[in-house]
């Protein structure tokens, strides 16, 4: 070293060498402890933070990582622990694994001992700085002071890392001359570890007050802090460094006589007793952290190697698992791409068989297969199947098939659930009816499932070799989604048949209870409502047919949404979920109409029923008060009904009356009277709204009928009201005139 003393180029060379450092090394025993925590099954960010805040090299890496991740460490709320706990564990793990290990193998024991003592010194300064700050400066974050103390000598670590032989000579000369490291560093390097530490702190984007403490902790901080308040922590660190050296907690590498902590403490109004308590507490904390870091464990490098081997094994297992998950994600992504294309191609007017044709065309193109046949069950006749065959994009046809006497293998439940089957064993009956040549040794059959029901199958000639298990993974999501969509289409066609039968029932004059006379009011009748019973039966059937496939589609779309990353595909899946939710609400209304709760018949006050109905109407329309006129005959008191159901039915009628006015504001008149027999009470609800013509009046109580534009109202109000009144042994009569208004007369039994 002496040959280079005073050479002005040395300082530039040192700055250049140290400026290339990206991190500082940690002791092998500390690295072993960190790795041990990293690969614990129940490892938490908090456990990692315990090590991070106890080792200067790892703390520097954490601060650098936090800055790279864009996290803001505010001085007043400074906490590396809190910042690390907000970061993803894999990112923290990767950063810690990149920290270099000291010493290299073959390093002499003496230098390792010095490095452990140096780490104790840094910990002692950190603990003392925190205690002094808590005692004197409540306005300063004690954690900021702690890290300023922990990192105050990172310049020393940098010199040792960049030029280990020169550093050893510098420490030995400082010891032999009983002087400070700074003086020897200035003599031979042209700059000292405070300048080096400052440059690194700026490069690694450390907080300003920590940077100042690293730079100024050997300076006259009392004078500096008077004109630079930001240097107050540097003054605290200088006192903490003096305490650690005076009480021999660790080794700093300087062998000069340190400033008396009593003198510095006196300038800060700290008495001797407080100083002793700070030193004793620091010594205890240093021992705790030394145990955490494994400083007392023998043969740190060997233990580190052992843990590295264990970690390497676990990383290899993780890599294998990750590779498998990547393949699964690729399979899912491929299936999702097909699903998105198929669902996007479907139009609202498509029939089940036209959807099957689109499925077959897309299947052949996407999976690069030979001929494809998709066959479906029919809702009308279980003996007839509908099929579409695609030989090429330009050669496709639809044909009817006769179902086999025994259910095909695709329709049989399997222990494994979804499976790709050998078509030779599962669809021999099919090939006898097709005039298309399939190479049977390569032909596979995939069942189309909707819920727990098989609705058909996809039969295709496989052109590329594939293992059965892998083939099942590739095709499962696509086939299940296609099955759910086709199941909905088949159920819709079934519903259309219900509707056609329903029209025949409701258009038969003798089954209608309501006397619908647009011009002249009519008397209510009490004979049974055959059409409403038939209507309810049809509604129940339609709801039952729709529920299962709807659940499958909704669940499938939800699962796919969670794994999809493409925004457009994700939006398509969300639209599917929203539409299934809308359909589900319609089904709920159908079921409420088809199978309402059995009425609990008892004597109920008619006025209370009307008041409850008015309250329900006000809530539904967000009204403070409904404009209603009530006239109750004194002879009318009680009716024999389910009061809750009657209140709901009358509320639905009141809502219809209210909506007959253009702005939904108008007078509604309610009158009650006994019929001549005394067995019934008539409740008349009248409005002066838009009224109905004869055609509209004839459809008034049909479910989902509404005179309003599509999408404005599902039209269940009057039909639901009529259903409840019928169940309570009552009857309904509606009269109406366009432009004049509507009167709904309800007859309710008195006993």
Any overview of this molecule?
The protein has 751 residues and is α+β, with helices and mostly antiparallel strands. It folds into three domains: 2-22 and 106-302, Hypothetical protein af1432; 331-498, GAF domain (Beta-Lactamase), CATH 3.30.450; 602-749, 2-Layer Sandwich (Heat Shock Protein 90). Helices cover 56% and strands 12% of the residues. The strands form four sheets. A six-stranded antiparallel beta sheet has the order 5-4-3-8-7-6. Strands 10-12-13-15-14 form a five-stranded mixed beta sheet. It is elongated, with a radius of gyration of 42 Å.
SSE blueprint and pairings:
Elements: H1 8-19, E1 26-27, H2 28-38, H3 45-52, H4 56-68, H5 80-86, H6 89-97, E2 101-102, H7 109-136, H8 142-150, H9 154-162, H10 164-177, H11 181-189, H12 193-203, H13 208-216, H14 221-227, H15 232-246, H16 261-267, H17 272-293, H18 300-345, H19 352-367, E3 372-377, E4 384-392, E5 395-402, E6 421-422, H20 423-426, H21 428-431, E7 443-450, E8 453-461, H22 468-506, H23 530-563, H24 567-594, E9 602-605, H25 606-620, E10 628-632, E11 638-641, H26 643-659, E12 668-674, E13 680-687, H27 694-698, H28 717-727, E14 731-737, E15 741-749
Parallel strand pairs: 1-2, 10-12
Antiparallel strand pairs: 3-4, 3-8, 4-5, 6-7, 7-8, 9-11, 12-13, 13-15, 14-15
Short description:
The chain is of the alpha+beta class and about 750 residues long. It contains 28 helices and 15 strands.
């Amino acid at each position: 070293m002496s040959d280079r003393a005073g050479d002005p180029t040395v300082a530039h060379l040192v700055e250049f060498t140290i400026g290339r450092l990206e991190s500082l090394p940690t002791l092998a025993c500390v690295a072993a402890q960190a790795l041990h925590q990293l690969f614990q099954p129940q490892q938490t960010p908090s456990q990692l933070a315990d090590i991070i805040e106890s080792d200067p090299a790892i703390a520097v890496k954490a601060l650098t990582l936090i800055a790279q991740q864009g996290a803001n460490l505010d001085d007043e709320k400074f906490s590396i622990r809190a910042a690390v706990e907000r970061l993803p564990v894999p990112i923290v793990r990767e950063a810690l694994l990149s920290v270099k290990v000291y010493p290299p193998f073959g390093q002499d024991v003496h230098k390792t001992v010095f490095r452990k003592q140096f780490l104790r010194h840094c910990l002692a300064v950190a603990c003392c700085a925190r205690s002094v700050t808590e005692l004197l400066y409540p306005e300063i974050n004690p954690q900021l002071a702690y890290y300023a103390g922990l990192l105050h000598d990172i310049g020393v670590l940098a010199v040792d890392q960049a030029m280990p032989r020169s550093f050893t000579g510098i420490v030995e000369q400082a010891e032999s001359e009983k002087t400070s490291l700074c003086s020897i560093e200035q003599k031979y390097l042209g700059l000292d570890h405070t300048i080096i530490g400052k440059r690194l702190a700026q490069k690694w984007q450390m907080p300003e007050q920590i940077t100042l403490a690293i730079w100024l902790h050997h300076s006259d901080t009392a004078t500096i802090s008077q004109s630079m308040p930001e240097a107050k922590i540097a003054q605290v660190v200088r006192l903490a460094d003096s305490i650690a050296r005076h009480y021999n907690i660790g080794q700093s590498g300087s062998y000069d006589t340190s400033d008396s902590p009593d003198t510095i403490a006196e300038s800060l109004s700290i008495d001797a007793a407080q100083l002793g308590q700070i030193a004793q507490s620091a010594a205890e904390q240093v021992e705790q952290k030394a145990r955490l870091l494994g400083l007392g464990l023998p043969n740190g490098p060997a233990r580190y190697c052992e843990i590295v081997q264990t970690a390497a094994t676990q990383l290899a297992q993780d890599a294998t698992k990750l590779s498998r998950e990547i393949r699964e994600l690729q399979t899912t992504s491929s299936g999702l791409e097909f699903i998105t294309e198929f669902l996007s191609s479907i139009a609202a007017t498509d029939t089940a068989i036209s959807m099957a044709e689109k499925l077959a065309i897309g299947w052949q193109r996407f999976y690069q297969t030979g001929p494809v046949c998709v066959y479906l069950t029919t809702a009308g006749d279980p003996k007839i199947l509908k099929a579409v065959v695609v030989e090429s994009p330009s050669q496709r046809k639809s044909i009817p098939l006769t179902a086999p006497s025994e259910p095909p293998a695709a329709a049989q439940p399997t222990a494994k659930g979804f499976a790709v089957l050998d078509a030779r064993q599962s669809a021999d009956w099919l090939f006898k009816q097709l005039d298309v040549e399939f190479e049977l040794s390569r032909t596979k059959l995939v069942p189309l499932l909707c819920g727990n029901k098989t609705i058909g199958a996809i039969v295709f000639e496989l052109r590329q070799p594939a293992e059965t298990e892998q083939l099942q993974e590739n095709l499962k999501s696509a086939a299940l989604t296609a099955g759910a969509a086709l199941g909905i289409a088949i159920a819709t066609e079934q519903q259309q048949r219900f509707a056609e039968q329903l029209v025949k029932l409701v258009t038969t004059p003798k089954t209608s209870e309501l006397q619908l006379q647009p011009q002249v009011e009519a008397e209510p009748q009490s004979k049974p409502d055959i059409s409403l019973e038939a209507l309810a039966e049809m509604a129940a059937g339609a709801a039952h047919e729709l529920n299962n496939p709807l659940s499958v589609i909704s669940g499938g779309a939800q699962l796919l949404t969670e794994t999809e990353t493409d925004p457009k595909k994700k939006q398509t899946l969300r639209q599917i979920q929203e539409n299934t939710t809308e359909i589900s609400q319609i089904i709920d209304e159908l079921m409420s109409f088809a199978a309402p709760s059995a009425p609990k018949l008892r004597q109920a006050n008619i006025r209370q029923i009307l008041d409850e109905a008015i309250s329900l109407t006000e809530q539904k329309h967000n009204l403070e008060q409904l404009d209603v006129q009530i006239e109750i005959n004194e002879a009318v008191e009680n009716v024999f009904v389910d009061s809750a159901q009657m209140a709901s039915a009358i509320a639905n009628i009141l809502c219809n009356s209210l909506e007959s006015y253009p702005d939904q504001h108008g007078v509604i008149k309610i009158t009650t009277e006994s019929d001549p027999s005394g067995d019934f009470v008539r409740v008349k609800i009248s409005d002066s709204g838009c009224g109905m013509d004869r055609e509209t009046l004839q459809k008034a109580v049909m479910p989902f009928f509404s005179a309003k534009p599509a999408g404005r109202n599902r039209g269940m109000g009057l039909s639901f009201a009529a259903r409840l009144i019928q169940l309570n042994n009552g009857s309904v009569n509606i009269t109406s005139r366009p432009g004049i208004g509507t009167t709904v007369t309800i007859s309710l039994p008195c006993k």
